[in-house]
Amino acid sequence: MPIKHSKISQADFAKFPVPTPKQTTSDWDPVLDEVENGDVISIPVKDDKELRGFRIGMARRAASRQLKLEFRATATNLAVRKSDQPYVAKPKKESADGQPRRRGRPRKSESQAESEE
């Protein structure tokens, strides 16, 4: 089925509103703001699964702000503070042959293709 379309002039194109990127705010932003300012916070948790999720989620969000966090936990609370150690980004993984990693399923090598014939 062909897509219906028509040509428009550059002037008509200029009349269309310019898209503005949406500012995404997270529920974690105020929490991380407090930790970044040096406050120590406590978050109530229900179980180990929620504790792990909060810890991993906060650490990832803090890494995007170049922060390193310290965590302490009890059965019902997770305590978080800003670490004294500087944030160090993990180095990118390189493959063994020096080529950039390819995404997706690996291709069959030529030696496998020849042996199957």
Please name the defining characteristics of this protein:
32% helix; three-stranded antiparallel beta sheet; extended; 117 residues; alpha+beta; 3 strands
Entry summary:
By secondary structure, the chain is α+β, with helices and mostly antiparallel strands. It has helices at residues 10-15, 29-36, 48-64, 110-116; strands spanning 41-44, 69-73, 77-82.
Could you tell me the mean pLDDT? 85
Task: Supply the number of helical segments.
Answer: 4
Query: Strand count, sense and closure of the main sheet?
Result: 3 strands, antiparallel
What distance separates the N and C termini? 41 Å
Helix content bin: 25-40%
Helical/strand content category: alpha+beta
The count of β-strands is 3
What gross morphology would you assign?
A: extended
The stretches of 5 or more residues where confidence is low (pLDDT under 50) are none
Strand order of the largest sheet: 1-3-2
Radius of gyration: 25 Å
Query: H/E series, N to C?
Result: HHEHEEH
Explained architecture:
By secondary structure, the protein is of the alpha+beta class. The protein has a domain of 58 residues. Helix content is 32%, strand content 13%. It contains four helices and three strands. Strands 1-3-2 form a three-stranded antiparallel beta sheet, covered by helices on one side. Strand 2 and strand 3 form a beta hairpin. It is extended and about 65 Å long. It starts with 9 loop residues before the first helix and ends with a helix.
